[in-house]
Fold each of these.
Amino acid sequence: MANPALLAAAGEVGGDFFKERSSGTLPCQANETHLFCFDWAKENIDRYGTPTMQHLELVLFSVAIGFVIAFALALIAHRTRWLQPPLLAATGILYTIPSIAFFFLLLPVTGFGRDTAIIVLSAYTLQIIYRNTMLGFDNVPDSVKDAARGMGLTNRQILWKVELPLATPEIIAGLRVATASTIAITTLVVLISAGGLGTEMYGSNFNFPTAILIAVAIIALMVLAFDLLLLGTQRLLTPWRKARPR
Amino acid sequence: MSASLVLASFSGAVEFIFAPQESNVTGGKEVGGFDKTMELLIGHIEVTVLALAIALLIGLPLGLYLGHKGRGELLAVGIGNAGRAVPELAVIALVATLIGIGMRNVAPALALLGIAPILVNAYVGVRQVDPAAVDAARGMGMSELGIISRVELPLAIPTVMGGIRGAAIVIVATATIAPLAGVETLGDFILNRNVYGENGLLAGDYEGTYLGSDGLP
């Protein structure tokens, strides 16, 4: 890794990283090819606090914004059928822009930092959440809607009391996929100075596996935690599905 | 890397692609230009094609086989979900750190990212094929391999192509950060901002986006 330009670029992000690593008297410093250095991990675990919080914050904001927009679009498309193909195409186009290029495309408009990151990340969730919400609505059997209408429910009541509860599993499935991929893509926002756990990978200048592995472990835990949380939410929201064996 | 950075204009970035220019950070040295752009573009395409080929070689047969046998649904779904949750930066970082840099190490790593969409789409595509068509082919005396290659694969082509396209997008996008692991791609313009300046950043980005969004039909 003797690329001076790269060293300098990495130094801009994690300049203090190298100083801290070289100033201690930790036993595994002499040999950087250690797969995992437990002493360094023990001493430096607190440096992951801020990036983890930034990462969480970015993910939560982006998925929340993406969900609100995608859900609103799905409700509109549900009522006006002819809007469905153009909306699916529009969210699909956003999804095909490569993630790294998307961040830099917005730089001249919104500049470095969190705003750009949140715009891009939430744009990426649109397609997944929108498609799954529409799928959920489409999967509601017509007979159920007819029965509801026969009982005297208005269109609005049918939407909120019949269709939405029955579509919940698909909507949550979409949210699970969207959250997992957002957590992964958020590692890249370090390239536009928006923080997150990518800081620790990028800052390590790729010759110190321990730092990267800790960040990867935190990301894996985060994906797992969000997945279980959303699965639990689904169980709470749709208790009638518990009785049915899978 | 401050927020008050003066950003390049669109025209500046386009000029950067075709003619070398002095950047505001190189102190008079000319950077960019058509030759450099072409060199990086070829590097980008090279690593992408290599990675996509590896991903195809592994993902497609496996997906077709699992779909044909109707087995391993949990495996296919699991790979699909896990594939979405893999951070690209972590893959590049870990490969550069643990295995090594250069095309030989980076292309398989990028292929790893492409396998999931290819495998899952091949699996789903084959499962969606009308069982009656498969039965008819078997009744006509076709071998299992013949059924896969001459009945199931042609019928599943739209879905399979969707997977290949998804894999290509992921690989082209991630090849942008391949310079971090010693493979020169268009991402060089973006990542080495202190060599190429702001015009280079945008130039590399426009090219990368173009490759990604129009690269495959």
Note: Chain B has two domains: 47-185, 186-217.
Amino acid sequence: MFKKRLAAGTALATAAVLLLAGCSGQAADPKAKATFDPKEKVTLNLAFWGNDVRADLYNQVIAEFNKKYPNIKVNSTFLGFPEFWEKRQTEAAGGGLPDVMQFDYSYLRQYSENGLLLDLDPYIGGIIDKKPLADNILKIGVVDDKTYAIPTSTNAWGLFTNPKLLETAGVSDFEGGSWSDYADWMKSVTDASGGAFYGGSDYTGRIQNFEIQLRSEGKNLFNEDGTAGFDEKRLAKFWNEGAAVRKGVGIPQQKVEELTPLGAFDSAKTASELTWDNFGAGYLKNLGADYTELNLVAPPVTKKGTKDLYLKPSMLHAISAKTKHPEAAATLVNFLINSPESGKIFGTNRGLPASSTALAAADLDPLSQQIKDYETSIKDRLGDAPPVPIVGYGSLEEKFRVLGTELNFGTITVDDAVKQFFAEMDVVLNQ
Amino acid sequence: MSTTATRVIVTEDRSSAHLLRKSRREVDPVRPGQRARVRRETAAGYAFLTPWLIGFLGLTLVPMVYSLYLSFTRYNIFAPPKWIGLDNYIRLFTKDPVFLQSSEITLIYVFVGTPITLAAALGTAMLLNYRDKGSGFFRSAFYAPSLIGASVSIAIVWRAMFATDGPVDSGLQVFGIDLGGWIGNPSMVLPMMILLHVWTFGSTMVIFLAGLKQIPKELYEAAEMDGAGAWRRFRAVTIPMLSPVMFFNLLLGLIGAFQVFASAYIISNGSGGPAGMTNFITVYLYKRGFSDGQMGYAAAMAWVLLIVVALLAFILFRTQKSWVHYAGDDK
Amino acid sequence: MTSTTIAGDARPAVAPRRRIKRKTVQTVVWFIGLSILTVIVLYPLLWLFLATFKPNAEFGTNPGLFPNQPTVDNYGKVMEGIAGVPMWRFFLNSFILAVSAVVGTVLSSALAAYAFARVQFKGLGIFFAAMIGTLLLPFHVVIIPQYIIFNKLGWVDTFIPLILPKFLATSAFFVFLIVQFIRQMPRDMDEAARIDGAGHLRIFWSIILPLIKPALITCAIFAFIWEWNDFLSPLLYLTSPENYPLPIGLRLYNDASSGGADYGATVTASFVALIPILLFFIVFQRFLVDGVATQGLKG
């Protein structure tokens, strides 16, 4: 009898504790600034990916942040990109994500749909300043009509060329044109180099080139509902386009493998590379002290007048759904994205700042200025951002890349590659 | 120690084990305290065994069962596992050319790499057996690589050594051999990995050497007096007498080869190598499970690996009667 | 089997000197042959050692053994560490893991081995077979569930998943080694102690343990080396760079994301990571080689 009462009492007590715990998590009215006690000492965990350089910049920004908010302590940790996500994965399963995270576009859907990220809508316009952020920027972090992340910076797809190599080859820069024009141009460089370097690599190895071609045709790579915007025939057509480049024009895959961990472009073995425009700084660093500048032009045009390019968030900031200090976290996010201090310190380390206040304060070195000018120059081709990448997009992107290398090796036919990619899509899209 | 004991120990032949024990128990008839003694023994046994038992149950048996269960599910660690029956296995064998390729290169690595390793180990052991004085230094020298072969350091060094225009490539070029590079070359990467495996032949060699030293010299002398030449002696004396050791080395060598991971992962920077040529099953399953978050699928792969290994061990154990000659039996 | 005739022992009694000389020649040839083989086998290690003195730029151009412009810069760079973690930290982590592995392994394996070898308990046969079975078990079958278990317990990014198994004798190699060793011991002393009233614990502690010291030392050395080289488990469980042991730290050097290719530092870091093992080996080689021989023979 006594035992029963004890059990009942325990159950009641447990329920009460749980109830109270649940209640205390609700914020009162986040729109009102500083519902939290600004004097309250709070510790936030911040995680980002990058390297020593970026870590140093973050430390500086946090120092500036603490000048304004001395009561909010920020513990920051960082990892390389793959390790960063492996760690987030285990934290997600165990329920312990950091309060504030640097976030990647390709994981946004998965994390938000699993309820791991805080809905930021209540804070936008309040703690998070809305004015410096353009509408289309804010739309980027929206999944299922809720904002789960805010871009720190954006980048766009562009074509880098190596002025030194071009000079050696005696070929002038790519003036723009169609994809076959680009292939011809690459050929002219490869031929002129006498075997020392190549005009470029097989562009059909990058899924983004496929994407902008599809966007020219008014389609998406993947739609919001998870279906693909292309069929086997279309993919085969794309990869067959690359056959001409793979035959003696682009750099052979074996050479690329030998260059790892460096890429072909930043080893000065290719004269051009299609990639995100914020890769420029890394390229310059790897190319060495001889290089002070690179050329940046628009990618080949699939169909004139279409808006095939778009601003992709190079990275975003998100807040863990289980954070104990949502307002403090939002304050930090706002500082990291919008503050002039952040803009000045980060410069273009994370890409071109998306916030106008940060951008204005950023000290743009020649390369960054070049990137900014580039993004202005392609304004006419900039369309709406595609839907947030589907869950598993990362795997698909990697599969595409691997298939590209095998096509370049010649160890697989286009038809087999298409079959494999669609098999992989089948698995991923049915998760 | 008596010869019987030695023979018993060398061959693990339990049939003669009874010769060792002093059979004290046979002398005592069943006594009243017997059952209690058995109980005490059992209690003591399990007491000593407790750590191992916990490890075996908690870290081996239970995970094995759980992984079998997972292999029939779709599981990505975010959401609970979803039962899908045999789908993973079906996909493995019908819809996944990467798995088929991965199996192919794993099998090549195991069934080409192991015999080469064994041959190198045996050959070197025989060389070392020629003479005791001075062989100690060489024995240690050959053993050293097996200690570090599976380390990350060596994987890095191997990659550097086989780079185009690296030491190996340049060395070959001196002889006029151009293999078209190693690391980036899909056709040469697998031989390079096998070479790395063979390089660690040291521990196998040491075991062969010990086995060789155990062969009574009388047998060789008798054979020589019969007029047997070196090759005949090898076939008639060395091979049969060495067969238990050969069995041991073959079994462990094959199984060890199936589990290659670190070297392949490092050399290919986690990608599975040029055109998937270092994408051994262990590497592929790691990528599927931990990079792609398809843990159910990875579990299915692991079980396929397990079944193959178990089958292999079973076949080896079954056939050993026909070719492994334990010294307990008379010729 | 034996032939009836004795092969004509018609070797002339002349020229014993020539026979001796042939033996000497054979020995010299043997020596030279083995030396050449040794150079080939040890070449990678030699190359590694000398490469640590090559300046970074030479790696593309000078594949030979000797650096054109030897430098010790690489060592300095390596000591600074990577990803904000100094080299000594990686060493410390490896050391902690390895020492813990040694303690755990020796303790738990000796206990289990004693049970298998000296105690007649019900189920011995089955469990012994099971233990041998785990020798043949591919580790990858259990890594995912083990990971899930440790993840649920919140032990990811701690050393616990790496150390705990060692205390539970999960590596049958060591148990088996000690079992075989114990079996070699005559039971006289056991029986004598038994008559004196000693229980198993007493016998284990006072009699068996001292006698199997060589086997324990062998186990300790192997456990240390294997743990030092372990790559997969730290890769799975440790995600913060401060926790990385050397193998994972080395991987960072090899990785692109940490800013380009510094071959000099990478190679030097690899060498530095190997030094403890090489030292161990040079000092303890007798134990290692003999231990391995014992294993193989008595299997």
Note: The two ends of chain A are 50 Å apart (CA to CA).
